[in-house]
Amino acid sequence: MAQEPTACPRCGTPNDAGVTSCANCGLTLSAATAPTAALPASDGDRWDVRGLLALGAVAAVVLALGIWQFVRSGDDNLSVVPGTTTTVVDQPFVTTTLVPTPTTSVPLDTAPTTIVGPDTTVVASPTSVGESPLVTLPPSTNRPSTTLPVVTTAPGTSPGAVPGDLGIDSYEMVAPPCDGGYITVVASAVGTDATAEGIEAALESYDDANYLRTDQSCSSLAQNSGGEPIYVIFFGPFATASDACEARADGPTDAYARLLSNDVGPDQSVSCPAPGADE
Fold first, then answer.
1. What pLDDT score was predicted for residue 276?
2. What is the pLDDT at residue 169?
3. What is the residue-wise DSSP string for 88-125?
4. How far apart are the C-alpha atoms of 7 and 33, rounded to whole Å?
5. Are the beta carbons of 241 and 273 closer than 8 angstroms?
6. What is the pTM of this model?
7. Among the four 25, 93, 183, 228, which has the fewest Cβ within 10 Å?
8. Any bridge partners for residue 225, and if so which?
9. How many CB atoms lie within 10 A of CB 230?
10. Is 172 exposed, middle or buried (CB count within 10 Å of its CB: 0-12, 13-18, 19+)?
């Protein structure tokens, strides 16, 4: 089988097989320029190339992850974004000194009193730990007043005098029994108007009259007027209401009869006929 001509690598002139120099330009031809048949790549060679490429890609990924982890550990506040340049700046180290707060110990048995308001006092319990403090509340301002008149007895009265006696000569204050009898009221005085001189003048104006202080007598009589004591000049006591009504004729025109009892209040009244109705 004849060999094919060999082309000169310089001028491209075909030369017969086996010649050592180009017939055109004189270039020395070697056996290396002789054409050789290319050997096909085996399956094993193709697998080796692909394996090397895969290993290179894995190594690149591992290297990138290592660089990212290193940068991230240097500053937790920085994040690495692929495709960007990150500059890590060292943060100054700050030292913080903690100063303890001073405390004051107070013995349980000497706990001070804490004033919460002008009228409220909180007192800590000295007996045990954990008990609620005692609270003293101010008096309620919504409660009705229960102030009663001050009962005083004038100097010079007898030892057995009724409290509130004004010390009028020849006229001791009385406290008639609250047994269902009746009196006829002819005059009255309240508070500072009830002077010894005024009461005495009224007593001398009506024969057989006496005086009492209602808060020292029966509940059927008004006990006070706006917190002030009431003194009453009266006739009696009488056994029946009709007797008390008849006694009005010896007093002023506005005289009236009252029941003496502790079973009723002062809102009860005694009805008497009008003067001259029986005539």
1. 64
2. 87
3. --PPPP------PPP-----GGGPPPEE-SSS-EEE--
4. 9
5. no
6. 0.45
7. 93
8. 228
9. 20
10. middle
Tens digit of each residue's pLDDT (9 = 90 or more) over 116-166? 455 544 444 444 444 444 444 444 344 344 444 556 666 656 676 889 999
C-alpha 234/C-alpha 189 separation (Å) is 12
Give the mean pLDDT of the chain. 74
Give the mean pLDDT of 53-67.
83
pLDDT digits (tens, 9 = 90+) for 113-127: 444 455 544 444 444
CA angle 8, 9, 12 (to 5 degrees): 50
Please report which helix (H) or strand (E) contains residue 186, including its range.
Answer: strand 179-190
The C-alpha atoms of residue 18 and residue 3 are separated, in whole angstroms, by 9
Go through the chain and tell me how many residues it has.
279
**CA 47 – CA 15 distance, rounded (Å):** 40
The amino acid that residue 30 corresponds to is S
What pLDDT is recorded for position 124?
45
Q: Which residue has the tokens 């330009």?
A: 25
Q: Give the whole-angstrom CA distance, residue 200 versus residue 256.
A: 20
3-state secondary structure of 143: coil
